[in-house]
Amino acid sequence: MNPRAPVYPRLAQGKAWDEMTVTWTSGYGINEAEPFVELRSKGGDTIRYPAGTLTFERGSMCGAPARTVGWRDPGYIHTSFLTELWPNALYIYKLGHRLFNGTTIWSQEYRFRASPYPGQKSVQRVVIFGDMGKGEADGSSEYNDFQPGSLNTTSQLIQDLNNIDIVFHIGDICYANGYLSQWDQFTAQIEPIASTVPYMIASGNHERDWPGTGSFYGSMDSGGECGVLTETMFYVPAENRAKFWYRTDYGMFRFCIADTEHDWREGTEQYKFTENCLASVDRQKQPWLIFLAHRVLGYSSCLYYAVEGSFEEPMGRESLQKLWQRYKVDIAMFGHVHNYERTCPIYQNICTSKEKHYYTGSLNGTIHVVAGGAGASLSEFSGIETSWSMYRDYDHGFVKLTALDHSNLLFEYKKSQDGKVYDSFRISRDYRDILACTVDSCPSTTLAS
């Protein structure tokens, strides 16, 4: 067995809907071999796509332990861009490194299905969660062993992989916290998933935060990684990978992914991106508008936020709720808090509907969901009964969205222990319901204007 061979492919959507990227790890630098992906469709020709190569050094880390006892040479990270794919077509691929002596080192074969085109009418299934981490399958001891639900979540996703089209892991990816070998452990754990469907990520505090490095928060939660590992190990279709906000389209969905570890407030570069992402979607083609972020910029009843008195990340919804309302965001989903909670459709702390499971017509507000219970030790809820909290669960789990067509969306919360549905709702509406004015969603007018 070749310890330098290509391993752990991670798929991600590219900047165009018909582009898929493949990122993987190997021991071969560009001075020894040329990396590439060999791709073929069923019955089609074989095409080779070249790959770029990245790595980093100990000096790229911002502090200890990443720069000291946690350092390990990461090898080389390669990314290839597979372009002009046919929507929903099945492709078979393998990773290759052509050595300069003429030998080629191959991975095993993998397969994926290309993304649907924007607006395509087909059943589209999306899994979303945060804060999963990793675990030891044999129960052995490890550093940062506080993600007891991680293996269960991973197992459930693998079992249901034929019914999943794309995954969003919204921050706190593996909790390496400066011990770099744990990134390899995590990418090995998710390989059956990430090699088969796009595995999209968001940046969290345990990936980015470090004092004096430009992060919005001055904590030391990244263990000195300061975003370098995340930006290198995973591809996202951002304009600047150091600024981890981006948008991606998947069939009838538009996803706007924020980076809560950079300033999101009004007047910032990220705020302008968020408004453009929400405003630029054609809701007739892509009716399901989803906002994703790591820290809770909306609503949470967890004990920590309740003690602060904010029930959110301070300045979160105050900065963004007018955008969610103006552009009629269906669901805003967050991690960071390690439990599950769903609100009513809400705007300015007021429920716009008391319905719990079936919404028709205009929501008149955004449903907020905390889905940070994928693996890490659970977060306690406050004893305060908030009027907007519809469902709470102190357990590990994940969310699944299914777009049945342009008028019907199914939301399900599943527990990691058994994969069964414990909370759900459905949205049914016509395109005209999105056009209708609701509170603060249309410009105000007066007789004078």
Quote the CATH topology of the largest domain: Purple Acid Phosphatase, chain A, domain 2
- Based on CA atoms alone, the radius of gyration comes out at 22 Å
- Proportion of β residues? 25-35%
Largest sheet: 8 strands, antiparallel
Percent of residues in helices comes to 10-25%
CATH class of the largest domain: Alpha Beta
Quantity of strands, as a count: 23
Poorly predicted sequence stretches spanning 5 or more consecutive residues: none
- What average pLDDT do the residues reach? 95
Q: What spatial form do the alpha-carbon principal axes imply?
A: globular
Full CATH superfamily name of the largest domain: Metallo-dependent phosphatases
- In total, how many domains does the architecture comprise? 2
- N- to C-terminal distance: 75 Å
Give the helix tally. 9
How would you describe what is shown here?
With 449 residues, the chain is α+β, with helices and mostly antiparallel strands. The chain folds into 2 domains: 7-113, Immunoglobulin-like; 124-435, Metallo-dependent phosphatases (Purple Acid Phosphatase, chain A, domain 2, 4-Layer Sandwich), CATH 3.60.21.10. The chain is 15% helix and 31% strand. The chain has 9 helices and 23 strands. The strands form 3 sheets. Strands 1, 2, 3, 4, 5, 6, 7 and 8 form an 8-stranded antiparallel sheet that branches. Strands 12, 13, 14, 15, 16, 17, 19 and 20 form an 8-stranded mixed sheet that branches. A hairpin with a 4-residue loop joins β6 (90-99) and β7. It is an enzyme of class 3 (hydrolase). InterPro entries: Calcineurin-like_PHP (IPR004843), Metallo-depent_PP-like (IPR029052), MPP_PAP (IPR041792), PAPs_C (IPR025733), PAPs_N (IPR015914), Purple_acid_Pase-like_N (IPR008963). Residues 125-340 form the Calcineurin-like phosphoesterase domain. Homodimer. It is found in: Secreted.
